[in-house]
Amino acid sequence: MGVNDASHAIIADLLAQKTGQQLTENRRWRVSTALAGLFREFGIDNIDQLACMLERPGEQHLATKVVEALLNNETYFFRDHVYFMTLANQVLPDLARKRASTRKLSIWSAGCSTGQEALSLAMIFAEQPGRWQDWDIDIVGTDVSGKAITTAKTGCYSQFEIQRGISVAQMLNFFSETPRGWQASDRICSMTRFQQQSILDYPPAPGRFDLVLCRNVLLYFDRPTRASAFDRVAGALAQDGWLMLGAGESVVGQTERFESSEWGSAIYKPTSVASRVAHSPRIAVAR
Fold first, then answer.
1. Phi and psi for 64 in degrees, rounded to 5?
2. Mind listing the domains of the chain with CATH numbers?
3. Which of 146, 121, 130 is nearest to 67 (CA)?
4. Is the peptide bond before 206 cis (omega within 30 degrees of 0)?
5. Where are the beta strands (DSSP E) in the chain?
């Protein structure tokens, strides 16, 4: 099922308005596939009919459904495992030394999808009780997708989801099988909380984080929006904190707020410029 230019523009504008993401030409092919379930639900025959419906007043519910269907919520536990090992063996020990006096760590998982990233972090802390005993660990996950956040808040995953990225020992140690699926234990859920929010909004409390994970989120932004997102993260991150991006992302040529670190291509640190953007103007993203 093809997508003509006018219909594509209506859907692309909707996605950009709600999320800041760009529905570029190289993503155009997946529109029909992503919306197939919604077509069946609403009895829609084609993209052109959907575009016409979206132009009518009072179709906010349909618009929300379209945006949710187009969002890429692909994730799994310990995605890009080597990067999580860098966190466990390099970044978190560094933060343990820096925060030894307060014994508090605040972490932001931006674009957390259905919660596996935040829970992966919680498992790292739980597996190192000698280092993190009596620490206050706060991991907040945010995502623009309300559907994804609902799943993250439940902490319950299907057999397929639970088998992606974790060992059998971790599965049995941190999850319990229930009639609804595999339920995360209180031991790791107690370190995490989730809320629906765009990365282009004001950062979530507590305002200054020791570590921010923003992985595979910026790929879908155009250059100005990506720069604004970096400003948001810079304003949320402590000057001696760390930023972790996805495998295909980089700060090089994208922002002056961050620079490379000694710990590989995924880990970045704020520059002196970053400290001056903590209260940059809010970027309007419609709800």
1. -60, -40
2. 5-70 (1.10.155), 81-276 (3.40.50.150)
3. 146
4. yes
5. 104-110, 136-143, 156-157, 175-178, 181-184, 192-196, 209-214, 237-245, 258-261, 264-270
Name the pTM for this structure: 0.89
Q: Which helix (H) or strand (E) holds 152?
A: helix 146-154
pLDDT tens digits along 85-124: 999 999 999 999 999 999 999 999 999 999 999 999 999 9
Q: Tell me which amino acid residue 50 is.
A: L
DSSP symbol at 243:
E
**What confidence category does residue 251 fall into, taking pLDDT thresholds of 50, 70 and 90?**
very high
Residues present in the chain in total: 287
Amino acid, single-letter form, for residue 254 = Q
How far is the C-alpha of 198 from the C-alpha of 287, rounded, in Å?
9
